Amino acid sequence: MRSFVRVAERGSFSAVAREMGVGQATVSRHVAELEQALGTTLINRTTRRLSLTPEGGRYHEDARAVLRLVEEAAEGLYRASDALSGSVRVSCTAALGVRQVARALFAFQDRHPRVEIDLKLTDTRIDLVQEAADIAIRLGTLTDSSMQRKHVGLSRRILVASRDYLERHGTPTSPDDLRQHRTIRMSNVADSGTLVLQGPDRSMATVPFGDRLLLDHGLAAREAIVQGRGIAPAHLWLIDDLLDIGAIVKVLPDHRLEPVPLSILAAPGRLRIQRVRLLVDSLTAFLRGLPGVAN
Fold this sequence. Notes:
Elements: H1 2-10, H2 13-20, H3 24-38, E1 43-45, E2 50-52, H4 54-80, E3 86-92, H5 94-111, E4 115-121, E5 135-139, E6 148-155, E7 157-162, H6 163-169, E8 184-186, E9 194-198, E10 204-208, E11 213-215, H7 218-226, E12 232-235, H8 236-244, E13 248-250, E14 256-257, E15 260-266, H9 274-288, E16 293-294
Parallel strand pairs: 3-4, 3-5, 8-11
Antiparallel strand pairs: 1-2, 5-15, 6-15, 6-16, 7-12, 7-13, 9-10, 9-14
């Protein structure tokens, strides 16, 4: 049943085999034996794609509910013994995961040593159900309406550059000066080609942000800032240590960038699982304590 549900969600026998750590033939046999036991075809197989039959679609929803009940029943035994157990799959943007979230997960495992954590670091917004993830930590506006959402706070960004860069190219004194500077821009962030800055008098300035250096990874952007490649907007939790030691400095410190929403998403039904719920609570408290994050 588990093999069938995952094949239905991922649309691939081979992907599920890799996920489960078994051969593709084993997953195919599981589904074939289930179809034989039920006396009906659940999945249409062609050389190009898999699709659920009408019976498979109905059975998929019921099977997911059954598997949830099985997991909740097992968890009841763990609660009775006061020991959390089982696995939690977490998806997180790479820079936030490496710089901050990983140590929060280590601390959670120290408190609950029988909990297994599978952390996937990616800046691609995955489908939690398809990828079998329990929770995802997301920056930016959310569109996953079917997911359970917990608002963590707003993550503040500031403009920064290395001292060396500013000595070589000068220090901007107004937003319009940015047009003449080298910039470091995230290619996978929506509307990153334009900066909107609020001045000390609350006036708004919109300036184009160039394409000299485009990156799709926050840690690469952090390194580019340190190496003097240009000016960049950065989340405070990404570069607070560099500011503390003076490796980089604020640019236009009296101007503000729009903060970015920080949220935790949970796949449908997963917050009923105690280990998932407790990890979400733990991560929420941790993330709210990060530099630059405000409720």
